[in-house]
Every structure is written in C-alpha cells, then in structure tokens.
Amino acid sequence: MRIAALLVFLSVAFGPISARADDVATAQSIIRAQEQAFGRDDARGAYSYAAPAIQEIFPTPDIFMSMVQNGYPPVYRHKSFEFGGSKSEGSRIAQHVHIIDANGEAWEALYTLEQQPDGSYKITGCSLLKVGQAV
C-alpha cells in the first residue's frame, strides 16, 4: 500500500515537470529547425516557425528573411549555436541560446515561444545581446 501511495505521489509531483520538459524539448526542436532553415537560406521554412504576430509584421517569407539577415546576423550565420537555460510558464517558453558568430564573437539570444490554439509552439521573438555588452 505504501509503495502504491508513493508511486501516485511521484507521478502527481513529477507529472507537470516532465510535461514542461517535453514542452522545452519541443521548443528547442522548433528553434533548431528554424536555425537550420536559415542555414539553407530556406525563407519559407524559417518563416513557418514564426508566430502569427511576427508574420503580420513581416508579411512574406522573403521580407522576414531579409530582416533576419540584416538585424540578426549572428542568428542567420554562425559557427556555434548551443542551448542554455530555459523557463516554462503557462503557455510560454523562454530559451537562452549561446551563439558564436561567423567572426568568432560571442552572443546571447533569448528566444520566446508561445503555444498556439492548435497546440503547436511558434517563435514570438528573439532578443540578441553581444556577450559583455551592457543591457
């Protein structure tokens, strides 16, 4: 009886944590897929991971890709792109990414994602800061 009670307690206690871990893994796979689409110059593919609000601001894949090329060169082309810490709260996920750009400079990116009505996650934003630069 005690073992059954312990198993019920553990499944209740750790259930939400593993669900959040699954959501973070999903978010990381979405970020990685977009990063790989940038590497292939696949504007349509990269655009498909952007949230509807981002797609309203940048109404075509080509406009979106141009914005990334000009405004986020370390995200567009880099030597290294590694996941750091993450935080999940409700239907939102924040994911840190450590980037070494094409010139060897270190950057920190903070991606935000939000769960959509269909259950999928889409990227709602990316903030980029050069390591050592004041906020």
Structure description:
With 135 residues, the protein is of the alpha+beta class. It has helices at residues 2-39, 43-47, 52-57, 61-71, 73-76, and strands spanning 78-89, 92-101, 106-115, 121-130. It has a four-stranded antiparallel β-sheet. β3 and β4 (121-130) form a beta hairpin. The radius of gyration is 18 Å and the shape is globular. Mean pLDDT is 87; it is low at 1-19.
What structural keywords apply?
4 strands; 5 helices; disordered N terminus; four-stranded antiparallel sheet; 135 residues; globular; alpha+beta
Question: Layout of helices and strands, plus pairs?
Answer:
Elements: H1 2-39, H2 43-47, H3 52-57, H4 61-71, H5 73-76, E1 78-89, E2 92-101, E3 106-115, E4 121-130
Antiparallel strand pairs: 1-2, 2-3, 3-4
Series of secondary-structure elements, N-terminal to C-terminal: HHHHHEEEE
Principal-axes shape call: globular
Summarize the biggest pleated sheet: 4 strands, antiparallel
Helical proportion?
Answer: 40-55%
End-to-end separation in angstroms reads: 55 Å
Number of strands: 4
Q: Which residues sit in consecutive blocks of at least 5 with pLDDT less than 50?
A: 1-19
Helix run count? 5
How do the strands line up in the largest sheet?
A: 1-2-3-4
| Class inferred from helices and paired strands | alpha+beta
Work out the radius of gyration. 18 Å
Average predicted confidence as pLDDT: 87
Share of residues in strands: 25-35%
